[in-house]
UniProtKB/TrEMBL annotation:
Signal peptide stretch: none
Occurrences of domain GyrI-like small molecule binding (ranges): 203-380
Protein's organism: Glycomyces sambucus
The Transcription regulator PadR N-terminal domain, residue ranges: 12-85
Protein name: Transcriptional regulator, PadR family
């Protein structure tokens, strides 16, 4: 079966079938007709494409090969004209998939702040407008155009105009979102989410509301733990997007965990199979229980996760607490907790008054374990 032609091969073959041409003449026609607005065909690649077509017997040099290679004139062979006709019929009838690189960029855009996305879209909008102006200038210089050429210019202009309209709409959306105040619990409550790593500090934690899922056992080996975390994030992001649509945006908070065990020494000794846990993500104060129920339903529609049935809203008041920032792997927390339990609390006349609380400020999937940051918090009361 005859191998398919690439867009570049089909373009060059069509121009040679239209009239015998050498490389420099092909470059001139490509520039004049604005071909590079709809196909990637650099000047240096023209000769590469010609060589490929010649090796397949689709084009052949006409006349003797005297002088530079770039001045050799090529014409289409009978086989080339037949394949050109077949490929043209197929290209006319079959809608091409959209493979614009900007779609890849938008899919990855959550890694950038909204302000940078808006700046990129503004730059794209200006570049597209410039390209459309140049295309219209090229077209005007060649009028009157034959019907096929007019159709090519019409299509190119329509595509550019559509891209400009899309870029303008997307830019307006991001400019609106950039202007919208976004609540971030880590910024709003730095006293709770940004302790020092050197010394223990005391804080008074007021009532805060969380999405919560309970469980038991080693988080590294428990399917229930994985399902709980997925349920929390799926619901939190559904809440974020619903709230944003209503005009109030927020950054999804970090994963947090309440940890408890019959023997507190199991934390120091990392006997994880003995641990009970409640995994949490904080909620902005304006989020209602009804919104949470709707978000859970939306998350459940996307993925069947048994943990969603056990997700609840938890109002938690920890009150006086001692906390510190731990930097490093989770399994290296033992010495810090031993210092808290065996030295700091007794020396300050304090004892436990609630679950051990951890706030995971780093993403273990993307962060070097040595650089992970975790807030370790312990509610306390006088001994």
């Amino acid at each position: 079966m005859e191998a398919a032609l690439t867009d570049a091969e089909l373009t060059v073959l069509g121009l040679i079938a239209e009239a015998p041409r050498h490389g420099y003449e092909l470059e001139r026609v490509i520039e004049e007709r604005g071909v590079r607005n709809w196909t990637a065909l650099g000047f240096s690649s023209i000769y590469y494409v010609i060589d490929k077509l010649a090796k397949r017997g689709l084009v052949a040099p006409e006349g003797p090969r005297g002088g530079a290679k770039s001045r050799v004139t090529y014409g289409a062979t009978a086989a080339g004209r037949d394949l050109l006709a077949a490929a043209t019929r197929a290209a006319l009838a079959e809608p091409a998939p959209v493979r614009a690189r900007v779609l890849v960029a938008m899919a990855n855009s959550p890694v950038l702040p909204d302000s940078e996305i808006a700046a990129g879209l503004a730059e794209r909008h200006a570049a597209l407008a410039q390209r459309l102006a140049e295309l219209r200038g090229t077209r005007a210089s060649q009028e009157p155009l034959p019907t096929p050429a007019r159709a090519v210019f019409d299509y190119s202009e329509a595509m550019l105009a559509a891209e400009i309209a899309w870029a303008a709409d997307a830019l307006a959306t991001y400019q609106k979102e950039t202007a919208m105040e976004k609540y971030d619990v880590k910024q709003a409550r730095k006293d709770l989410y940004a302790p020092k790593a050197k010394d223990f500090s005391r804080v008074d934690v007021p009532e805060l509301r969380y999405l919560a899922v309970d469980g038991h056992g080693d988080p590294n080996a428990s399917t229930a733990y994985t399902e709980a975390v997925e349920a929390l994030y799926g619901t939190a992001y559904a809440l974020k997007f619903a709230s944003k649509a209503e005009g109030r945006d927020f950054t999804v908070g970090p994963l947090e965990g309440l940890w408890r065990a019959a023997d507190p020494a199991s934390f120091v000794e990392r006997r994880k199979g003995e641990w009970d846990w409640t995994m949490l993500i904080s909620l902005p104060e304006w989020i209602t229980d009804a919104q949470v129920r709707a978000a859970v339903a939306k998350a459940a529609a996307k993925k069947d996760n048994p943990a969603l049935a056990h997700l609840r809203v938890l109002a938690l008041t920890e009150g006086p607490s001692v906390q510190i920032l731990h930097i490093g792997p989770y399994d290296d927390e033992g010495p810090v907790l031993a210092r808290l339990h065996d030295e700091y609390l007794p020396a300050n006349g304090l004892t436990f008054n609630g679950d051990h609380h951890e706030i995971y400020l780093g993403d273990p999937r993307r962060t070097d374990p040595a650089k992970l940051k975790t807030v370790l918090r312990q509610p306390v009361k006088p001994a």
